[in-house]
UniProtKB/TrEMBL annotation, chains A, B:
The keyword DNA repair does not apply. It comes from Skermanella stibiiresistens SB22. ATP binds at residues 135-136, 162, 227. Residues 42-154 form the PurM-like N-terminal domain. This is Thiamine-monophosphate kinase.
Length: 340, 340
């Protein structure tokens, strides 16, 4: 007689029994709160969605040495991975439901790493009301590679899209911009800040703006989350909406830490506006909704407007004197700043 | 003014404009047939599911050098990746809907590779009626790493589970068993076969048994797909169902190629029964449904039964004389054959 094998794999190069045991021990409890995960005993998860709702599905992958630093604390890596996906759900005005997780881990990774990683996931599951629904755990001879497919719910027809912004719409952004990009430069040793911890924390722990979902559903005509950089992401919105935007650099909300850094070296304003990893929401509203939006007390700031004309898909950034600002997009391989 | 950036990423280490262009060129057309993908213009896909149905969600990852050979043809890698997921949907008696794809690719991978990979995906999308819904494309300093989260639909409450098999239920398996495991050994150079191509093809191109879904919904009391090996996967079913199984090795269906190989070296029967990568469905039915099942003409074979007693989660394999067979589980790191 043969005992049951302790897990599931796609090939003979499966993790060892010990590795399966570890994965079971650390990851299975994360699925306990979602009945559709079937306790991870089956080939797939099975669940319905409430009547009158649509499913919102987003996927993001992170590679050690590319998207995070290999010696980042595992709980921070877990938080970043989950939160970049949750930010996409927030950007679509969806509420979190469940997520699938792929871990590709070197064979020699320690129990301590996996335990801390799972603890980070568990904390964020509680904080954001999402549960593990399944996934796959494989070993790799390469760097730690993680991906999440996150699912959320939105009332049918109410998902927030990038298209839909009209001429004259006002451009708003949530929270503060630039902290994460400056924090990354502090970690890389290319920037010294008097108060670096809040900047580093924003880089390591994005804050998905799920609390903004009711406000977005009520007011936003278009929106997305800021991952590539404020200017680039607003350009995405303009591109899909077929509009041009003008924003005032002096109106872009900065944290106290970022303001101190930019005050000492104004060239860093370019990093703030184009650096990315903000995971704030940039969105548009009709001008007539401005007062009602601000009356909600949501942490959002008006930074510009969509022009009645202008080249679709373009963003013009004005300095405090109203003159177009030239931006350096240093560090970006795919973002090419054109003539201002 | 700034032109729109050509894509989306999670960090400053984003693919270059050229890489985004390639991904757009090769992967975007794969989403054209699924309206919920929103043309891949937004942060997420958005779609409803039909009333009276549940969503079935499965995730599998493949790593070059671990789950496929690095110089395997890219279209075969695409087919394997999609089909292992489709096999999980078939095992749950679900029909394919859409999938999310993560590609982690070395920067120096050529256009030819990506084009052939996308062609393989497109062919399978047509063959199996599934579409790309979104995903992420990142670069990696490590091996090619791919993952798919596939979604399917099943009438509410009709998903096929691993639990649910009762005492006396008959054990059936679809198709033929062992071809892929023998094919892998041919590719690895540890086995010579007179007719190796069908074996290699089964290793490289799993055949998800989606055509069996109506039959499974009608008759199966429990089931799963055979990826870890027939004996190990049947043991999974027994474990979750709380039953013991006895199967007759001589009844396990072999292809002509596999029969020839095992005829020359009977020790390879162990490879056939435990080797894995079959992607057939092993399932149970009530004995009273046997004739009706066989009358459907489905390509399925009775190989054993669930015992009224016996240690739950165990599988006993009998040889042609009715004596318990000792199996070697060579090549498996997580499958431990106990005393027969």
């Amino acid at each position: 007689m043969l005992p049951p094998a302790p897990g599931k794999s796609t090939s003979a190069a499966a993790p060892s029994a010990g590795e399966f045991g570890r994965i079971d021990r650390y990851l299975k409890p994360l699925a306990a709160g979602f009945s559709g995960a079937l306790g991870l005993t089956d080939d797939a998860a099975v669940f319905g969605i409430p009547a009158g709702h649509e499913l919102v599905v987003t996927t993001d992958a992170l590679v050690a040495g590319v998207h995070f630093l290999p010696d980042d604390p595992p709980a921070d890596i877990a938080a970043k991975m989950l939160r970049v996906n949750l930010s996409d759900l927030a950007a679509m005005a969806a509420e979190p439901l469940a997520y699938s997780l792929v871990t590709s881990l070197p064979r020699d990774i320690g129990d301590d790493w996996l335990a801390a990683f799972a603890t980070g996931l568990a904390e964020d599951q509680r904080a954001y009301g999402i549960h593990l629904l399944g996934g796959d755990s494989v070993s790799t001879p390469g760097p730690i590679t993680l991906s999440v497919t996150a699912m959320g719910l939105v009332p049918t027809g109410r998902a927030l899209r990038r298209g839909g912004a009209g001429p004259g719409d006002l451009v708003f952004v949530s929270g503060t911009i630039g902290d994460a990009a400056l924090g990354l430069r502090v970690l890389q040793g290319t920037l010294t800040a008097e108060d670096p911890d809040p900047l580093i924390d924003r880089y390591r722990r994005p804050r998905p703006r799920l609390a903004l979902v009711p406000v977005l559903r009520r007011f936003a005509t278009a929106g997305l989350d800021v991952s590539d950089g404020l200017v680039a992401d607003l350009a995405h919105l303009c591109d899909v909406s077929g509009r041009a935007a003008v924003i005032d650099a002096s109106q872009v909300p900065l944290s106290a830490s970022a303001r101190a850094v930019v005050g000492k070296d104004p060239r860093l304003l370019s990093t703030v506006l184009t650096g990315g990893d903000d995971y704030e929401i940039v969105f548009t509203i009709r001008p007539t909704d401005r007062d009602a939006l601000l009356a909600t007390g949501a942490e959002v700031t008006a930074i510009g407007r969509l022009e009645p004309d202008g080249v679709p898909g373009t963003v013009t950034v004005l300095d405090a004197s109203g003159a177009p600002l030239k931006l350096e997009a240093a560090g970006w391989t795919h973002f090419q700043a054109g003539p201002a």
